[in-house]
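Re: beginner question about structure tokens

> Can someone show what the tokenized structure looks like for a real chain? I only ever see the sequence side.

Sure, here's an example I had lying around. Input first:
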Amino acid sequence: MTWSIVARDDDTGYLGCAAATRFFAVGARVPFVASGTGAIATQGLVNPYYGIDGLKFLGEGHEPVDVLTKLTCRDPGEEHRQAHLVDMRGRSAAHTGTSCLPWSGHICRPGVSVAGNMLAGEGVLRDTLDSYRHHSQLPFAARLIAAMRAGEAAGGDRRGRQSASLIIFGPDEWSVLDLRVDDHADPLEELQRLEVASRREWMIYRRFVPTRQDPGGVTDHSVIDAAVGSSGEQV
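And the corresponding structure tokens:
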């Protein structure tokens, strides 16, 4: 009942996942992303432990294909699950259970994977992937959203639209960007609007938040206010 894209950005090394569905709050259970580890989407009849344990296995150094084998072998409901992932090296893998509802499938390529179930057809995934590959000049967040919008134009979820999400991690243990549209008539359009809005304030402000390398961050309000006040700045 969902389609999604997981990817590693070659330019920045960032990891991300974008998803959309005709169901409430896709961002609450489908995407799992961790800095320096990987990005996983668990969908179909969702099993959150594919994300939780999958990131753990990736962090332990297991290859993506082996991670999915470990997850499905211990899941009595694996034929109803769909999951796909990309790791920090850009290796991808996917599983679409035999009982996932039609149309269901996945396409894996180096650095990116697309997967979906209950779709209008295979063209949803092909167009999502083609858009992602053809828009390498875009910033990572905009590129992921553009890819999803291309999939929606090809039919998307055959039941309709309701929610969408985007999450990106960089080198920090907290996200670069985490956007959710939980219930909306046009969730991908709203997701795109939020991503543009994030560049006016949040993506500027986040430069001043503490990191492991800079435990204090920036605490001078005049510096922060001056930067955030320059809302025309593209980050």
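Each token stands for a local structural state, so reading them left to right follows the chain. The mean pLDDT is 96.
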